Structures are given as C-alpha cells and as structure tokens.
Amino acid sequence: MYSDLSKLNRDPRRVLYVSGNALESCLQPENCVPVKPWKCEADDTALLDLIPFLEYVARHRPADIRPVLASYQGRDIAKEFIERSKEHQKKMQEQKQQGRLWRR
Question: Percent of the chain having pLDDT more than 90?
Fold first, then answer.
C-alpha cells in the first residue's frame, strides 16, 4: 500500500513523512525521512535520534522542506545533522574568535 501525502490536503512544502519504509511506500519520496524499520529491538533509538533534526526544522520552519531533505539524500539524517551542527558551531566559534582579534 502506498502513502499519498497529497490526500492530507496540506502544502507539500511543509510535509515531512517519517517511516521505516517511507521511500518504498510513499508517492512523494522527496518528503520522506527514512528510518530503520523497528523490529522490537530494545536498543533501537532511530526516532529518538531524529529529535534534534525535527526540533531544528520546527524552530526554523523552512519555506520548503524538500530541498532540506534532498541535502541529506543517501545519508543517515540524524547522524549527518549532528555532524553539520558540530561543524556550524565550530565555524561560529572561529568567527567569534576572529571578531575578538579585530577589536583589540
């Protein structure tokens, strides 16, 4: 059975679909956030690992979620988001340090 997100009567730029078989079963794969299918493993944290990414998206409300998701294509979104966040923090810290040097 395929999921047709257009039936939600929502703007597709604002719809994000999280599923263990999202890419295989959704008619709008550009809106999908694939996660490892849950098989009752007690140590499965796939959904918990996505929380920082989902919070970021909710807070920043991109005009269109699809290019955001496309930038993660072929990668584990949760892990890649953490790496990108660390890199962003590092750049911000470097810029802050450079600003201090110029003011002296």
Answer: 62
Give the three-class secondary structure for 62: coil
Average pLDDT of 33-52?
90
pLDDT of residue 90: 94
As given in the structure block, the two tokens for residue 65 are 């979620």
The CATH code of the domain that includes 24 is 3.40.50.1000
Contact by Cβ (8 Å): 8, 15:
yes
Residue carrying structure tokens 């599923």? 19
**How many whole angstroms separate alpha carbon 54 and alpha carbon 16?**
9
* Total tally of structural domains belonging to the chain: 1
Is-above-0.70 flag for pTM? yes
Distances (CA, A) of 7 to 3, 25, 34, 52, 59: 9, 14, 20, 28, 26
